[in-house]
TrEMBL record:
<dbReference type="InterPro" id="IPR045621">
    <property type="entry name" value="BPD_transp_1_N"/>
</dbReference>
<dbReference type="GO" id="GO:0005886">
    <property type="term" value="C:plasma membrane"/>
</dbReference>
<keyword id="KW-0472">Membrane</keyword>
<feature type="transmembrane region" description="Helical">
    <location>
        <begin position="132"/>
        <end position="157"/>
    </location>
</feature>
<dbReference type="Pfam" id="PF19300">
    <property type="entry name" value="BPD_transp_1_N"/>
</dbReference>
<dbReference type="InterPro" id="IPR000515">
    <property type="entry name" value="MetI-like"/>
</dbReference>
<feature type="domain" description="ABC transmembrane type-1">
    <location>
        <begin position="98"/>
        <end position="299"/>
    </location>
</feature>
<feature type="transmembrane region" description="Helical">
    <location>
        <begin position="280"/>
        <end position="306"/>
    </location>
</feature>
<feature type="transmembrane region" description="Helical">
    <location>
        <begin position="177"/>
        <end position="196"/>
    </location>
</feature>
<feature type="transmembrane region" description="Helical">
    <location>
        <begin position="12"/>
        <end position="31"/>
    </location>
</feature>
<dbReference type="GO" id="GO:0071916">
    <property type="term" value="F:dipeptide transmembrane transporter activity"/>
</dbReference>
<feature type="transmembrane region" description="Helical">
    <location>
        <begin position="102"/>
        <end position="125"/>
    </location>
</feature>
<keyword id="KW-1003">Cell membrane</keyword>
<dbReference type="InterPro" id="IPR035906">
    <property type="entry name" value="MetI-like_sf"/>
</dbReference>
<protein>
    <submittedName>
        <fullName>ABC transporter permease</fullName>
    </submittedName>
</protein>
<dbReference type="Pfam" id="PF00528">
    <property type="entry name" value="BPD_transp_1"/>
</dbReference>
<keyword id="KW-1133">Transmembrane helix</keyword>
Length: 316
């Protein structure tokens, strides 16, 4: 029952977070400078009567909570609004771009789990030169932002060696994975470094714990000790940080997608913000917040499933 209550509390917190986030996102864009109506008349100095009719048609002069209530109600009904810049439904704009971004995030997430957690566990268990190499490598990787890594990868592996394509997302699963290899690496590299460092420290800390020494003194097999005592007890901080990193990938997709010419929601967010296309920016911002909160909620639930004591700590 403790775990059930914990999950219910997390669900309630998730819903409240999304409600607050939606109000903040809509409010910030509501008070942002500029008039979205100018998008429909081509900018410049539009006819005031035309602008007034657009304001009336799109309810742009209504009070804040009236506009927000209409927007939130439409979202709950599945109507995400209409883009003023693209002259298209937001749902249609997203439908063609979400698969590319989702595949990129999943690809980068797999790299984080395999190389971040794997490298950290290996460094923590082996120590010595392996630990030194992971420490130095992760420290260097943390220093480079996504766009710098993207430019470097393009210059070496696309321009010089011609191993990977430099533009687009490809067609078909195999071709898409080939096209997204460099973007996924550029997006995940810094996150891999963070996860590797946290994993390394957590594993090293558990190796020196008293219960591990006690298990060794009883003559238990080292593989069993590592699996049942070291990795299991080290997993909560590792999963927490990995979840944060994977959830944060969505925010970084804009840089990777623009650098490699990928038609995804990250690049769409950048373009829509530049065009003051509020309907698209609002939905994409809310979508990224929702994904971030949901991933962290799932991580919390997994941590509690692995160690039910976490539910008691969370309640306290």
């Amino acid at each position: 029952m403790t775990i059930v209550r914990f999950v219910l509390r997390r669900i309630v917190a998730l819903v409240l977070t999304l409600v607050v986030a939606s109000v903040v996102i809509y409010g910030l864009l509501f008070i942002s400078p500029g008039d979205p109506a100018t998008l429909l008349v081509g900018g410049g100095k539009p006819n005031p009567d035309v602008v007034a009719r657009i304001h009336q048609e799109y309810h742009l002069d209504d009070p804040f909570f009236s506009q927000y209530g209409r927007w939130a109600t439409d979202i709950l009904r599945g109507d995400l609004g209409r883009s003023l810049a693209y002259r298209d439904d937001v749902s249609h704009l997203l439908s063609g771009r979400i698969p590319n971004t989702l595949l990129l995030v999943v690809f980068a997430g797999v790299l984080i789990v395999v190389f971040g957690i794997g490298g950290g566990v290996l460094a923590g268990l082996r120590g010595g030169r392996v630990e030194t190499a992971v420490t130095v490598g992760s420290s260097v990787a943390m220093a480079f932002p996504t766009f710098v890594v993207a430019v470097f990868l393009i210059a070496i592996f696309s321009t010089q060696l011609s191993w990977f394509p430099v533009f687009g997302a490809g067609e078909g699963l195999g071709d898409k994975l080939w096209h997204l290899t460099l973007p996924a690496i550029s997006l995940a590299l810094a996150y891999i470094a963070w996860v590797a460092r946290v994993t390394q420290v957590s594993v090293r800390g558990e190796l020196g714990a008293e219960h591990v020494d006690a298990a060794r003194s009883r003559g238990l097999p080292n593989r069993w000790i590592v699996r049942r005592h070291v990795l299991r007890n080290a997993s909560p901080p590792i999963l927490a940080v990995s979840g944060l990193m994977i959830a944060g990938l969505l925010a970084g997709t804009a840089v990777a997608e623009k650098a490699f010419g990928i038609d995804g929601i990250g690049s769409l967010l950048v373009d829509s913000a530049a065009k003051q296309d509020l309907a698209v920016v609002q939905i994409l911002s809310l979508l990224m917040v929702a994904a971030f909160v949901m991933v962290n909620t799932v991580v919390d639930v997994v941590n509690v499933a692995l160690d039910p004591r976490q539910a008691v700590k969370g309640r306290d």
